[in-house]
Design goal:
single chain; mainly beta; three-stranded antiparallel sheet; elongated; 53 residues
């Protein structure tokens, strides 16, 4: 799984129920990101991923 930062807990945690999404970037480029929930407080977490290899 992917680790992200929870703003509410102020700690790094594993993203539960993570789903890869595409978001708009500069110049019409799409960027990969992981979106899910914090396992402790259920706040939405978001992590920008690198380019696919």
């Amino acid at each position: 799984m992917v680790e992200g930062y929870c703003v509410k807990c102020k700690a790094k945690r594993e993203i539960s129920a993570g789903k890869e999404v595409a978001m708009k970037g500069k110049g019409g480029v799409t960027r990969r990101a992981m979106k899910g929930k914090c396992p402790k407080c259920a706040t939405t977490m978001f992590r920008i991923l690198g380019a696919k290899k």
